[in-house]
Amino acid sequence: MVKKSNNFAYIDGANLHKAVKSLGWALDYQRFRIWLSEKYAVKKAYIFIGLIPKNKNLYAYLQESDFDLIFKEVVYDGKGKPKGNCDADLVLRATRDCYENKFDQALIVSSDGDYASLAEFLHEQDKLLGILSPAPKEKCSILLKRINAKIFYINDKRSILEVRK
Questions:
Q1: What is the pTM of this model?
Q2: Where does 7-161 sit in CATH, by number?
Q3: Phi-psi category of 92—alpha, beta or left, where left has phi over 0 and alpha has psi -120 to 50?
Q4: Domain chopping of the chain, boundaries
Q5: What does the pLDDT look like over 126-156, one tens digit per residue?
Q6: 3-state SS of the chain: helix, strand, coil percent to 5?
Q7: Three-state SS for 92?
Q8: Which residues pair with residue 128 across a beta bridge?
Q9: 88 vs 159: CA distance, rounded Å
């Protein structure tokens, strides 16, 4: 159990969903939120996610599971695939919260190397609890691994975080 009691999680929703799905299982978000609270003393868990109206039931479920949703307007590519790049929003929120001293430590939930600068900044400020990678060790960005921060892997907890049939 983590000693600090006011930790925040910053979750790249698309990265989390896609990585877990690629591993062949589905994440139970209610169980995941409880686990974040118990394991890492996460008081506030932000999920950065693209806003697609047909997903309103998912958004309601996530909010009922005690996640704070930060929406990004999506754009569609030529094939109609939605793209809601939330990276800058996540980085800005975490940096702002750090400067405003809103949390003791931050947990970044992503395998994306785009967050390496944020992770390094938080690490230098002694504000990085760690990185929780949805992707397995071999697929987590080398840029995140080079920071020398703690990296935890969600797939190691599949047995307790997977949707039960």
A1: 0.93
A2: 3.40.50.1010
A3: alpha
A4: 7-161
A5: 999 999 999 999 999 999 999 989 999 999 9
A6: 45, 25, 30
A7: helix
A8: 106
A9: 32
